[in-house]
Amino acid sequence: MIRPALPLCVAAALTTALLARASLADDAGEAADYLARARSFADCMIRHGRDRYGPVHSPLFANALTREDPPRLTPYPLFAPTPVNKKTGKPFPQKETGLQVFGLFDFNKVLNYPKGLGSEGPHKVTLYGCDPYEDRELYEFLFDLSRLTGEPRYAAEAKKALEWWFRHTQGPAGLYPWGEHLGWDFENECPTYFAGPSKHLYAACYHEIKDTVPFLDILAGLPAEAPGKPTPLERYALGIWNAHFWDKDKAWYCRHGDYRGLDDRTGSLSGFPAHLGAYLRVWTAAWLASTDDDFRRRMETILHKVLDMAVGRSEKYGFYPFTFEPDAGKGIKEKSASGQSMRLAGHAAELADRLAKPLPEAAAKLRRLAELHFKKPWSQIAASSQPDQPAPADSPPDLSKEKDPARHARAILLYVEAYRRHGRRQYLDAARSCARRAGAMFLDGASPLPRALPAGTALTTATGEFPDFYFRGAALMHALARLGEAMDHSSRK
Fold it and tell me: 1.50.10.20, 3.10.129.10, 1.10.3720.10, 3.90.226.10: which CATH number matches 204-387?
């Protein structure tokens, strides 16, 4: 029996429906693949990426690992000898500061690691051991993976590592060995470059943080080690004041603070704006979490002194200068607020809301600091604190030459978030395109860990070949998990 041909419009509709169904099936399968990849990475980090080195084994996660089976800690970084002063033709002089000898190494040149791991210099990243500040994406991924999978163990492992960090790595000055410069050395059980071949890398043991400070909620939840003693967060808050603020009458500070408390940074004019934002965040969190009235009063005094300094400088110059050089009579270099100064204003606006009821006088000063930078009254700043994100282009950017997996992660998440807000299929397809490109560059079947550098990158160093390795890849795996979630949602529509 010959069936009559379907009308073209009906055939087209059926074809569209079948293609849509196939697309949904593809979405479901691809979503499962992305989520499986993310889980495999997390399971590998939990099993093989912990601190199983040195005398003390801990739940801390390594920032960098080889991609062999099983993964291991990457080699100890070896820095080049002290550089030569181009003007004199002689090596820079060495000087002793407390227990340190500065000038032994060129901290911008590591000999036994490949190039391409960041533009700020190898001394500003933790290549060996752990730094939750720098590697925050790993812990954020594990927390979110528990939400995505319904399995609490991922969040529990992240929390276990962070609590160990906050309890065991705090230094004599109350600071943590995290942020730029410092990390925790698994083999030598101390901050990085306090021991080993690159010992005495810096003039002082630099604690440096800026902008947001991760996991303060977990730090705030840790009790004092004994009744009558400060909590770890209270120690950290006071440590920042004591180690960074070398002129406490003027509230002048240095962006670097000595982990040991031996170098008070006297005379340094490099008090950058974004770093003050981080200090204000720590102090606010500490004041809100504390039940110690004496500590709270001391913290209020510090907050008011520092905010008076920040508002006074901003009123004098029209914005918060990048350093204290103009205050020291050395002139001001910038003509308008720097990006860091505007970020400080953003931190001030956010903290003003948090302190509006409990500390209204401090909140008023924070609002004033924000107004001086945004050049509009507080009512308008508050109304625009959550601006709508502009929709991205339908076509994703070309990241084929981008070596940093975190940049690829940001592109994926940009389109995932745009799809979540607007529901347009083009955004989901753009996210998939970004993910497939990133997968080809950083993922393979050899290891659940993503590569630190794209496939085909020569891993040659001044000391020989470097093993294939993982570094800063957690953000990419988190982005793939979020894309998997979005595609799974799409397949269920």
Answer: 1.50.10.20
The span from the CA of 162 to the CA of 160, in Å, is 6
Q: Using CA atoms, how far apart are residues 373 and 390, in angstroms rounded to an integer?
A: 23
H or E element, residue 464: strand 464-465
The answer to whether residues 272 and 324 touch, using CB atoms and an 8 Å cutoff, is no
Q: How far apart are CA 487 and CA 481, in angstroms?
A: 10
- Contact 454/383 with Cβ under 8 angstroms? no
Residue-wise pLDDT tens digits, 179-226: 999 999 999 999 999 999 998 887 668 899 999 999 999 999 999 999
Q: 355: alpha, beta or left, given left = phi > 0 and alpha = psi -120 to 50?
A: alpha
- Report angle CA 329, 332, 338 to the nearest 5 degrees: 140
**Three-state SS at 11:** helix
Task: Report residue 93's pLDDT band, with 50, 70 and 90 as the boundaries.
Answer: low
Where do the structural domains in the chain lie, given as residue ranges? 204-387
Cis status, amide bond into 326, omega within 30 of 0: no
**Cα dihedral 412, 415, 421, 423 in deg (nearest 10):** -120
Q: Tell me the residue type at 338.
A: S
The tokens describing 232, both together, are 């770890």
Element (H, E) at 409: helix 405-422
456: Cα separation from own chain's centroid: 27
Both tokens assigned to 360:
């209204």
362: Cβ contacts below 8 Å, ≥ 6 apart: 300, 303, 304, 307, 355
What DSSP assignment string belongs to 123-183? GGS--SSB-TTTTHHHHHHHHHHHHHHS-THHHHHHHHHHHHHHHH---TTS--S-BSS--
Cα separation of 256 and 268, whole Å?
9
DSSP 388: P
Q: Residue 26 — pLDDT band, cuts 50, 70, 90?
A: confident
